[in-house]
Amino acid sequence: MGATVSTEHQEKLLLLGLQTAHLVHDWNNTLTLLQAQCAELPPSEAARTLAASLAEAAALPRQLLGYLRQTPGAVERVLLDEWLRFVTSELRQLLGARIRFLLYDSAPGAAIAVDPGQLRNALINLILNARAAVGESGRIVLETSADAATVALQVRDNGRGIDESVRSRLFEPFFSTGADSHGTGLGLSSVKTFVEAHQGSIAVEPGVDSGTTFTLRFPIAT
Hints:
The protein is α+β, with helices and mostly antiparallel strands. The chain contains 6 helices and 7 strands; from the N terminus they run H-H-E-H-E-E-H-E-E-H-H-E-E. The strands form 2 sheets. The protein has a 5-stranded mixed β-sheet with strand order 2-4-5-7-6. Strands 1-3 form a two-stranded antiparallel ribbon.
């Protein structure tokens, strides 16, 4: 049975890769047209914001291809605590007003070598999973730490937790606990691919009484 499932996953990924190649081509053509039109706009704050958004949109196909190829993108030296403080307001927008969102930045000056766009997407995936776990109210915590060799980023929630039968399959491509057909199961699989492509590791642990903790660990960048 295991070999059959593995083959099925490989076939799905191959099909996804072929579809992605067509999507990237069409996406880039559309963006080229939009960027050309944006360049004709009178200078303004709105025009600058639009140009910046189009530049971010241009990076999305590269991130998707990086996932499929299991390779990092544009790697940069990122001071994790500073970067998290910068993106915290954006992450808060993903959560309802009744969910407490806390950041404990405990790795001052510690840097990692990652693609910031892929790191952002991985964190969004984990935040959205935590939001689903806590429901309309609860607590989600981001916490960093560092030792002599690595920097860790934890995402903790106090939600309903994850059964062992589910936890053992969380990082499988296309595995989903959703009852409908909309879940692709690519979220946590893509997070794992991103982390390992940057020489890191990811672990998931149940809370003491409830909740779940995801720990991403990366080598320190000097």
